[in-house]
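Follow-up to my post from last week.
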Amino acid sequence: MTQDTLGALEFQLLAVLLEQPRDAYGITIMQRVEDRTGKARSLAAIYATLDRLQRKGLVTSSWGEPTAERGGRRKRYYEIEGAGKEAVERVRQATQPFGLTSVVRVGA
Amino acid sequence: MKVFTTEDLKLLRQIAYGFKRGNALRTEALLSKADSMSLNVCLTDDGFMATTRDRLIVAFHVGEMRFSLFDPNAEAGPIWLPIAAMPPDNAERVLSYLLRPDRLQEALGDFDEGFALMLDRHGVGYARRWYWVQVTKLAARGLFDAACKAAKIWGGFGPD
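User reply:
Got it. Predicted complex:
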């Protein structure tokens, strides 16, 4: 996948982060993608896609505080960047006539 | 004030297995570790109980391998669950060889939280299956990434 294209899961993750920016970390993102698409995704796929989006500069992450229900481990929160919002918008505009959200060129 | 964490519960489960298997040396070592973690463990007729200063109690019935986490001042009696209803604790050992430390911390926390969620929604069997499927998929991806990294170093092969 090149810098200016978005895969289906990349688009879904960006859309989730755009629509529900609060409390977005691994398990909540996984649930929201499942609610949105009706398809269960593994955390491995979610992490790999989030890593890719970070490398593309579309998403950033920050660490939260450790909590007891996570065995004293910290959450990693993800946030969509301006470039990510633009990418989602471009995909929506490009795919609107076809009802598609798969691999689409989003570069200028 | 200390509350029970999943790490505490995992340690207490190991103690229960130590008792069950009659491994006195290991049980003794685990009890010392519990003491160092400010967990007050006392033996009972059926197994043992552990308390913290926030009044919560976890009781283990070693013969039937059940546990209960309850507030002794609450009106409802304790609810007993099979020990299998606790998140598995072997995943860390497997994944620590394959993942970066930051990803390991993130993933294990998400797995524990996801396990509790699946337990609530679908029951013990589903939650344990879900947990191990997630661990296996993440381990496979970690292995693939490590192989790609090695291939890039040694032969200039692998994704950019």
